[in-house]
Amino acid sequence: MEYVIATTVSTDEIHLADGSVIENQPGSAGFYALAGVRVFTDKVAVCGGIGPEYLPRHEKWYRRNQVSTKGLVLRSPISPTIVIHYFPDGSRVDEPNIGLNEFRALDPSVDEVFDCCDRNTKGVYVFKAVERDYLDGLIGGKLRFGYKLMWEISEDACTPKQIDVIESYLKDIDVFSINRGEAMLLYGTDDEAEAERRLAKASPNWVFFRRGAQGAHLLAGGRVYDCPGVPGIRAVDTTGGGNSSSGAVLYGCCEGYDPQMAGCMGSAAAAVIIGQFGVPDVFTEEMRCKAFEQAKDCIHAAGRALHDC
């Protein structure tokens, strides 16, 4: 498979402020990254552990969107479900039915990731804290299969005591995805620009520095590329916007697009994902073409702005 998403998947049950409920929405950070890749290609597979209810709930979505489920392995008697409560002020509370450790135990093993890879694999995405054996294994797989590796770091790993370890991996990570809040936590600063400068200095490769509604910066080759958000988009549900943009950036990197175009493809993918609750029921060719055009529009809006790190 050309793109492999190594992730734990879940089901979201969304309770809106008006009392209505949206049930059985596929979710998780990695699933939204998968959706970001799927905006641009159907050559994508997901691998990870699941519970017995997962495929009965969601297999139709995978079939409609030509996304392989061969990498999903039945491993738990419980299917992770996250109940999301929205309140009138726009805030939300997430209530998972299992703990974080149990959730992460459903991540695919390195060998299970490799079972989804072949010599045609271009990119592998992983959402992880700092798990050295796991990261080392996937980095080793780059030599075996020739793929590029994206590591989207989890927030709980972003502490100053992890700086040296995280920075030591950046030479082997083709695209490192982190949001500005996580970056400031990592470097123990409230100065976004300082955190960005330190990441740019630490990584010889791409850093996708996500900035919420302001879009993102793509740090590459000693330069900062501005990748603004798509203008005029009504955000229905911002869940997964950052994850989906990460997946799209990995796709852009692997397909040979320049850093700013890849970053703006991330903005376009996020615009697709936040336009409804959950991910679209069906990804279409029309959607793909529109996303490419929106990415180009974002570049024009930025004026191809870039500056030295």
**Which percent band covers the strand fraction?**
15-25%
Q: Do you know the CATH topology?
A: UDP-N-acetylmuramoyl-L-alanine:D-glutamate ligase
- Supply the CATH architecture: 3-Layer(aba) Sandwich
Stretches with pLDDT under 50, minimum 5 residues: none
Structural class of the helix and strand makeup? alpha/beta
Biggest sheet, spatial arrangement of strands:
5-4-1-8-9-10-11-12-13-14
Question: Which shape, going by the Cα principal axes?
Answer: globular
Organism: Schaedlerella arabinosiphila
Domain Carbohydrate kinase PfkB: 162-279
InterPro entries: PfkB_dom, Ribokinase-like
Protein name: Carbohydrate kinase PfkB domain-containing protein
Question: Could you characterize what this model shows?
Answer:
The protein is an alpha/beta fold. The chain has one domain: UDP-N-acetylmuramoyl-L-alanine:D-glutamate ligase (3-Layer(aba) Sandwich), CATH 3.40.1190.20. It contains 11 helices and 14 strands. It has a 10-stranded mixed beta sheet with strand order 5-4-1-8-9-10-11-12-13-14, sandwiched between helices. It has a 4-stranded mixed beta sheet with strand order 3-2-6-7. Helix 1 packs across helix 9 (about 240-255), helix 9 packs antiparallel against helix 10 (about 260-275) and helix 10 (about 260-275) packs across helix 11. The two termini are about 35 Å apart. About 45% of the residues are buried. The model has no long low-confidence stretch (mean pLDDT about 95).
